[in-house]
Amino acid sequence: MTEKNKPAHKIRSGTGLTVTIWKNDGDNGPFYTVTPTRSYKQGEEWKETNSYHQQDLLELAEMLREARAWIRAQAIGRVAEQGPDAAPAGHTERETGRRRASGLQH
């Protein structure tokens, strides 16, 4: 695995669920994507799937919430480095302006 395709962060559960966060470079700076997977063993071989059992859903939702918080923390760090007028990753100028106008902060 090269540095370019190395995950930015992984969140793992004890039940075989993983949420992998990938950093991407875009025209307006970095942005993040998320890949949830479930690991299972078939015979002696470990495999991954993006199909989930009913009992996985609540835990997966919490892991996705954690991934969202991690990504937002990265965006806040970027804003701190670039100054208060920098738009967080994944937000348009209009969305950022709307938050400022309403007094909402990250």
Quick summary of this structure?
The chain has 106 residues and is α+β, with helices and mostly antiparallel strands. The protein is built from 2 helices and 4 strands.
Describe this structure as you would to a colleague.
This protein has one domain. Helix content is 34%, strand content 31%. The protein is built from 2 helices and 4 strands; from the N terminus they run E-E-E-E-H-H. A 4-stranded antiparallel sheet has the order 1-2-3-4, with helices on one face. Strand 3 (29-42) and strand 4 (45-49) form a beta hairpin. The longest helix has 26 residues, at 57-82. The two termini are 33 Å apart. The model is unreliable at 91-106 (pLDDT under 50).
Q: Please provide the count of β strands.
A: 4
- Radius of gyration (Å): 17 Å
Number of domains: 1
Question: Strands of the largest sheet, in order across it?
Answer: 1-2-3-4
The proportion of residues in beta strands is 25-35%
